[in-house]
């Protein structure tokens, strides 16, 4: 397996320093943000899209550091009904695919997105359990009128540049589990779209990531190493814990008027560094299952553990991941 880091946690430092961190952890790749929710801090994407010299110069920085570009990332909501968000994130994804093609990078990670429940709606609507027809009708319209046409276009663009688009199965998206990932591929006839296997969003849904890998098989194209801890509070609040709070002072902006909410106190579950939710034995099994599909697959640490600082969290995750890879 090719082990690396997703660069969002290292946006506080310039690219050469971020690459030094990757090497110090004993890892070999950096997944680089290219737009969407977060800016392309380590990717001069305008230059990459227009200048062959810029492409070679950027690749040279990675070669000199002994680190590869282990994918581009354009996580966002390209189907958001607010054009300040959806249209921008969709264009960021298109640009990321073209940039990846120019850089010789074969994977772009993103989310499938979520539109409004009906034409003319202004707020995305998630229908994960459509127990009655009002909800299933809205879900079917979201897929038929918005999701499928968009992803057909993206699949065509990705094929043009020889890039595989890897969808993170994430809540508040059309694709959030193996069944919806399969549905998107089947309904679009996609040849250049697959799954980014991020187990953190599967754990809290009660999905076994190893079973999900074997279920999806060759549709798994890329992976994230991110853990989830299910807390005691789940016994009271369940996994659908809606106690998030709006941040009024200096919020993280996600586009338009959208901002990132504060996580619940005493949360039902938390994103944590590898080993704090599931032990090394699980991560060995996770890597072994991925290797059965593609022994050269990239697996990149995504650090979102608020209990640990950026470097501390990466060190904790890398120690578990490297040990797991050794045993896989």
Write the layout of secondary structure elements.
Blueprint: E1 2-6, H1 15-24, E2 29-33, H2 45-50, H3 52-65, E3 68-73, H4 86-103, E4 107-110, H5 133-161, E5 164-168, H6 178-188, E6 193-197, H7 200-203, H8 209-216, E7 220-225, E8 227-230, H9 234-237, E9 253-255, E10 258-259, E11 269-272, H10 280-293, E12 298-301, H11 310-327
Helix pairs in contact: 4-5, 8-10, 10-11
What characteristics describe this protein?
two-stranded antiparallel ribbon, alpha/beta, TIM Barrel, single chain, eight-stranded parallel barrel
Q: Give the mean pLDDT.
A: 97
Provide the CATH superfamily: Divalent-metal-dependent TIM barrel enzymes
Q: From N to C, what is the helix and strand string?
A: EHEHHEHEHEHEHHEEHEEEHEH
Q: What is the beta-strand fraction? A: 15-25%
Give the tally of β-strands. 12
Low-confidence stretches: none
| Second rung of CATH, namely the architecture | Alpha-Beta Barrel
**Backbone structural class:** alpha/beta
What is the terminal-to-terminal distance?
A: 10 Å
Number of domain units: 1
**Strand arrangement, major sheet:** 1-2-3-4-5-6-7-12
Report helical residue fraction. Answer: 40-55%
How is the biggest beta sheet arranged? 8 strands, parallel, barrel
Shape: globular
CATH structural class:
Alpha Beta
Oligomer: single chain
Rg calc: 19 Å
């Amino acid at each position: 397996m090719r082990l690396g880091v997703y660069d969002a946690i290292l946006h506080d430092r310039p690219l050469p320093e971020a690459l030094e961190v990757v090497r110090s952890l004993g890892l070999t790749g950096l997944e680089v943000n290219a737009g969407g929710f977060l800016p392309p801090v380590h990717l001069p994407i305008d230059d990459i899209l227009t200048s062959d010299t810029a492409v070679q110069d950027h690749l040279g920085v990675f070669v000199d550091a002994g680190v590869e570009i282990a994918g581009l990332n354009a996580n966002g909501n390209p189907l958001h009904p607010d054009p300040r968000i959806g249209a921008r994130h969709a264009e960021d994804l298109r640009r990321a695919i073209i940039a990846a093609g120019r850089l010789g990078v074969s994977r772009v990670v993103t989310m499938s997105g979520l539109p409004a429940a009906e034409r003319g709606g202004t707020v995305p609507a998630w229908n994960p359990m459509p127990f009655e027809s009002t909800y299933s009708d809205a879900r079917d319209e979201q897929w038929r009128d918005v999701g499928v046409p968009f992803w057909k276009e993206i699949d065509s663009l990705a094929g043009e540049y020889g890039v595989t688009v890897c969808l993170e199965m994430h809540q508040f998206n059309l694709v959030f589990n193996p069944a919806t990932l399969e549905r998107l591929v089947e309904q679009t006839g996609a040849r250049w779209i697959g799954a980014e296997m991020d187990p953190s969003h599967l754990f809290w849904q009660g999905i076994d990531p190893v079973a999900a890998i074997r279920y999806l098989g060759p549709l798994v194209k890329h992976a994230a190493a991110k853990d989830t801890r299910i807390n005691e509070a789940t016994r009271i609040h369940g996994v659908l814990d809606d106690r998030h709070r709006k941040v009024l002072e200096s919020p993280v902006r996600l586009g338009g008027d959208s901002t990132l909410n504060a996580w619940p106190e005493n949360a039902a579950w938390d994103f944590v560094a590898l080993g704090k939710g599931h032990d090394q034995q699980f991560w060995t099994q996770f890597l072994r299952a991925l290797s059965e599909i593609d022994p050269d697959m990239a697996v990149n640490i995504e650090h979102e553990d608020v209990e640990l600082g950026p470097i501390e969290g990466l060190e904790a995750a890398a120690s578990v991941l490297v040990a797991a890879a050794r045993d896989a």
